[in-house]
Amino acid sequence: MTDALRTTGLGVRYRRTWALRDCSLAVPPGRVAALLGPNGAGKTTLLHAVVGLLAPDAGTISVAGQVAFMAQDKPLYDAFTVAETLAFGRRLNPTWDDAHAVARLEGLGVPLDRRVSGLSGGQRAQVALTVALARRPSLLVLDEPLANLDPLARHDVMRALMTAVAEQPLTVLLSSHVVADLRDTCDWLIVINGGRVQVSGDIDDLLAGHLVLTGPAGAGTPPAGSRVVEASRTGTRTRLLVRGTSVTDPRWSARPPDLEELVMAYLRSPDAAALPAPAEVRA
Amino acid sequence: MIEFHLDRGSGVSTYLQLVHQVKQALRLGTLRPGDRLPTAREVVEALTINPNTVLKAYRELEREGLVTGRPGLGTFVQRSIGGARLADHAVLHRDLEEWVGRAHAAGLDRDDMEALFATALAGRLREGIA
Amino acid sequence: MIWTTWRQHRAQILVTGGLLAALGLLLLGSAVEARLHISGHAPPGCPGTAAACWDLARALGDRYDTVYSIFGWLPIVAPALIGAFWGAPLLGREYERGTYRLAWTQSVSVRRWLTVKLAVLGTLVVAAGLLTSLMISLWRPVFRQDVFGNVGVFNMVGVAPAAWWLYAFTAGTAAGALLRRTLPAMALVVAVVSVTTFTLFGLSEHYAEPVRTVLSGTTVPPDPDSRLVSGAWVDPSGRELAAPPAGVCLRPPDAGRSSRNQEAHERCLFGKGYRYALYHHPPSRFWRFQWTEAALLTAGSLVLVGVTVHRTLRRKG
User: So which domain of life are we looking at (chain C) (predicted)?
Assistant: First the structure.
């Protein structure tokens, strides 16, 4: 099955510096992929390149089918009414499903004759999401969709996304710099740090392939067969996050990491990487 | 129809929780062979989880032969769990309720009762009787 | 895409239409009233170029001073407003508000989006310019016959306004594409339009080789609607002088607005055999100059459209 999104050696230059350097990643179809990384790491640059707003300076991007985008801050035309915003989408997209879009917004209680400037933050997000979803894309890309939303609106947006993935064949790629929102909803992880891809893979596989080891402070070398991602020492204990599936050394107690621990460890160790070989990427 | 709930802090992966809840329902008799499980969309609208998780849980249940998927119609319960259904054991159920009443009167709280029961169960299992 | 263009730019289209309608009413009102005044007070054959009509022209001028003042500013202000309110926001606002991230990620390519917008709005701008020139062409002859000699009027009739407004519009869109913010783009386009205006006003006398007419008895051109370039006194031997001859006739300075002493000096020179060589463009060159200016401005517009398209399609951060 062809990937919904694949980039190979992607590089984007901004003036003198490379905002993205040698980025290779793939997202299988039907996945909900989380793009995580600190601010300024290149998340927005990567997403803008994927949707065609930026031309790559190196490497290639290939997307299967139509891509829809919800940019950061969910831009809409403030002077338009909600109905006019839908008309805008209808006229600019031949695959537009207007009945579905109207039903969705009416079901959410968003008044069609209200100006966009008069909507609440949560309503704006729903309208922007509707505009992206109504054209039935194969890939939906969202740049920080949960930022600046109250908890109720955040939940509504995630629920809308999950429902859309359940209803139609859709791959989702969303960026965030808050990990906690994403554990139950995302099943593919991409970590980007300093313009480079550090992690790319299935979340369950990644968590199963790493361990958090706790051992005494003077434990010396870490167990054989594991690669240390991050090491930290607190008083009498050493804590390691390693890449490996089992550890027989009795000095170390092992448990699988949670998503936040995994992401944090990689972000704190910019030189570490967990990238699958091309053949390992599977649905 | 079964209503799923999610314990996000439990550390147990979501799809395992769903599998467990279906099995519990089968044991208790609230789900019977021929009943339809909620669609992935219905579960997702209620719980806001990834639909692939639901599909993974249903695939696991299908692998164990407990449910079967009929394309276009839904996922249906194939068979129940255990020889006899719990609902048939009214006597045991009443004895247990009586025991809970006595334990409560003796001053045990819920955690005490659960610990006591777990110890007794483990002890009997070790003896190979249960 | 056409509906989208209309809806996004509805306000500016309606306001411009409203202003043109208001201008039309103002011109119509003043023309009708002037006609009534003329039919009551004017000598036969006026308004016209004859000397007998000058008093009438001055009376009309005093009467319609306000209208003339508005009119006087139009050749500069109208293109500047078009550039600032039609051109600069086209791309400036999309970048500023971030809505380009919505507009350019739909199924319509950026190239098509930009092409349709430029075509629709450019056509409307040209149409508005032609309408304005039509209104002015009908209005001005009620008062004066000076469509060619007066550079300001010249730029408000014929195809000049349409060419100027198209140029200003494309300059505005280019400014918006380069600066990516509306207010700085507005400032830039006003500057560009002003510089171009003064440049072309000064350049226009070179659109053709001026005609040399030698006059004896007057320094006034035969056709008052001629575009004057320069003049020089010719001495009796036929040599052109760089400056009026000194020491030949008495030349006391004039007081106030009177030109009596100046006229006496000229009569004296003519009497001594001097003649006046006038370099000018006759009014018959009106359309030639119109098309020349329009060609220059249209060429500029095409370059600016090229800049706009190139910059926008480059897809750089």
Answer: Bacteria
